[in-house]
Amino acid sequence: MDGKQKSVAAITQELQNCSEEALIALCSNLRTDPRKSVQLLAEKAMKRLEKEKKELERVQGMIDFEREIAGSTIYCGIDEAGRGPWAGPVVAGAVIIKDRHLDAFLLEGLDDSKKLSAKKREALYEKLFEAESRGQVVIGIGQASAEEIDALNILQATFLAMRRAVEALKEQPEAAIIDGNQNPKGFVCPSRTVVKGDAKSMSISAASIVAKVYRDRLMAELALKYPFYAFEKNAGYGTKAHIEGLKQYGITPEHRKSYRPIQEIMMQKAG
């Protein structure tokens, strides 16, 4: 039956189920269909195909990047979450991807955690731990407390969290690749940095998601203990609700006393 004789519903079904080659040929025919709704279906199908191809190219680029940077070395990707907030720990994730034949949802979702919705991050976080249970990845999480941040400074505390994340891995890597441009001295294994690594490396992207979701959950737990600062919503960042809580109730043991906004609140309270 010719494409022009089919119903819109039948065409929609066919567009969803055909191969890439068949889809291109079908859309080419549908563009001449006199029905605007059918032409629009063809246009949307081609845009979807182009988006899927770009995503596959992105994922393949991440795989190629890691092969080039690491070769046969067993390595982990490392990223952190929580350097900027006024409260709570800084958290680091370390991930070794042993098997790159991962769940399609996981493969296509791996990206800079800040680009993903909270719902998507949560789903990917669960998928990563499912992959770990199958032996496909190894995950380590480390953190440094607000007290350690105040004692060391945020950069050194971040390096400490990264070291702890690597030490928490059930299998130790031969090397590490770290998101950013600051490489810790005397690290637990040879390491190198990758600027915007969470968009280039699958293992760094996975570590970014692990660190972000773990820390968000931790801050939600702290919100139950300290309910006046909206930690469950702001993750410790200096939002209006957080500032109002500080002004009314003062600081908690989870606040970073070395951070200037917290110091100013402490001075106001003392005055």
Summarize the structure in words.
- Helices cover 55% and strands 12% of the residues.
- By secondary structure, it is of the alpha/beta class.
- It folds into 3 domains: 3-67, no CATH class; 73-212, 2-Layer Sandwich (Nucleotidyltransferase, domain 5); 222-270, no CATH class.
- Strands 3-2-1-4-5 form a 5-stranded mixed sheet.
- Helix 2 runs antiparallel to helix 3 (36-70), helix 5 (118-133) packs across helix 8 (202-225) and helix 6 crosses helix 7 (154-167).
- The model has no long low-confidence stretch (mean pLDDT 89).
Spell out the blueprint of helices and strands.
Layout: H1 8-17, H2 20-30, H3 36-70, E1 75-81, E2 90-97, H4 104-109, H5 118-133, E3 137-144, H6 146-152, H7 154-167, E4 175-179, E5 191-194, H8 202-225, H9 231-234, H10 240-249, H11 260-270
Parallel strand pairs: 1-4, 4-5
Antiparallel strand pairs: 1-2, 2-3
